[in-house]
Specification:
The complex is a heterodimer of chains A (about 250) and B (about 170). With about 250 residues, chain A is of the alpha+beta class. Chain A is built from 5 helices and 11 strands. Chain B is about 45% helix and about 20% strand. Classes of the chains: A alpha+beta (about 250), B alpha+beta (about 170).
């Protein structure tokens, strides 16, 4: 990704009304490690400040959607546990195939978020030993609450579906997903943009869901994992800046 | 223009070994992959799971609030404004505790019950027609626990209590 110079000075910009609703760090491991749910249960006593434990399930559609003979079913398997702390604002997920840490709004700082994730990852690392990391991801779910009387989405966001000028431009709803390779850092950007119901009347809410991730890794180095996260954080900020306009910057400053 | 000559069936037989039946396994596979991808992306985000869950819950509650007298084809009362208001308030509390209900059921006396079901355990919040609330938890073995919300348990703790009960192993 060639980064315009004007964006570089924006990459660490702080917004007083930052629209971050959730930040997620996800690390997946090589599943050849024979981990069992009982192994993960041990973590209940080792995660201070995360008093509530919930079972974590993976729901998957199996079978086929074939015409005439629908055979698709939903399979649900327990894949781990979630531990909830900070009054429901922080969620640590320990799965058989990896770890995730999620921070809900109000988001504090990258350093606090990363350090908490590192601390929890260290607990998981003790369980999985030298298991190789196969995927790392950093995902930020932003919700922009735009004025209802907006003239054009283009005034606020720069990544959204373009509608032919021969069609009516009024949008009742949209959901767009694009996957954009970040070749210079060997990663993939999954960008979801969608209109979602607003928290209050007189606003239009748009979710800007930015997920930068890297698959196919075989890393045994935690240092490499966290260096990658740092790199993803810079990229995520640039992508966010690339998706909004100055009008939006004013709105969230 | 001469009439088109349909070849005899026996003429087609020689093609049978080469006939490839056209189905859409790739499309079906793609549909399955997309479905899994979207559900996994949604599940990974607690914010989105709760946001979309709440939308569904509020839609269902709105439908319940529009029921008319005799909605059960007998003489059931429509849900009272107090029961609907109490339901709305507790649903927001529950979203804060990161849980969404399985079903919303009106009662014939003008109340609204909010159900949470998991395996053989059920918890529900009974919102009475006067706005009072109770949390009821029961399992298939007949073990039942009833707590008055407000006096036995603060409403802010209801979400955690339900999660702990349903996730108990």
């Amino acid at each position: 990704m060639e980064i315009p110079k004007w964006m570089l000075w924006l990459q660490n910009r702080h917004y007083d009304k930052a629209p971050i609703r959730e930040a997620i760090i996800d690390i997946q491991i090589d599943q050849t490690i024979p981990l069992k749910l009982a192994d993960l249960e041990i973590l209940s006593d080792r995660v201070p400040g995360y008093s509530e434990r919930r079972n974590l399930f993976l729901r998957q559609v199996t079978g086929q959607f074939s015409a005439g003979q629908p055979t698709a079913t939903i399979k649900q398997d327990q894949v781990g546990y979630q531990f909830i702390g900070a009054e429901g604002k922080q969620i640590a997920g320990f799965r058989l195939d990896g770890f995730a840490f999620s921070r809900l709004a109000p988001y504090q700082t990258w350093e606090q978020f990363r350090d908490e994730a590192k601390k929890l990852w260290a607990l998981y690392r003790q369980l999985v030993g030298s298991a190789l990391v196969t995927r790392v991801g950093l995902r930020y779910v932003n919700q922009l609450d735009l004025p209802m009387n907006l003239r054009d989405f283009r005034d606020y966001i720069r990544s959204y579906p373009e509608i032919s000028s021969d069609l009516p431009q009024q949008l009742a709803s949209f959901f767009m997903q694009v996957q954009i390779p970040q070749t210079d850092i060997g990663a993939m950007l999954i960008l979801n943009t969608a209109i979602v119901p607003p928290p209050e009347p007189n606003v239009v809410s748009v979710v800007l869901d930015i997920d930068v991730n890297k698959e196919g890794l075989k890393s045994s180095s935690d240092e490499e994992v966290w260096n990658t996260m740092e790199m993803f954080r810079v990229r995520k900020n640039l992508i966010f800046e690339g998706c909004i306009t100055n009008t939006t910057r004013e709105l969230i400053s | 223009m001469p009439a088109l000559q349909v070849p005899p069936v026996s003429h087609l037989d020689r093609f049978v070994p080469a006939i490839r039946r056209v189905e859409t396994p790739n499309y079906a596979e793609l549909l399955r992959e997309w479905s899994n991808m979207f559900s996994q992306r949604l599940a990974q985000s607690t914010f989105l799971t709760i946001k979309y869950g709440l939308i569904n819950v509020e839609q269902e509650l709105n439908k319940v609030s529009e029921l008319q007298h005799g909605w059960d084809s007998y003489a059931a009362e429509p849900p009272s404004a107090e029961a609907i208001g109490a339901s709305r308030t507790i649903l927001r509390e529950l979203a804060g505790a990161l849980i969404c209900p399985s079903a919303i059921v009106p009662s014939a006396e003008g109340g609204v019950s909010i159900y949470f079901i998991k395996d053989d355990r059920t918890a529900y919040i009974e919102n009475y027609n006067d706005g009072a609330q109770a949390l009821v938890m029961y399992d298939r073995n007949g073990c039942t626990d009833v707590l008055e919300i407000g006096s036995d348990i603060p409403s802010a703790d209801v979400g955690n209590r339900i999660s702990r009960y349903l996730d108990r192993t």
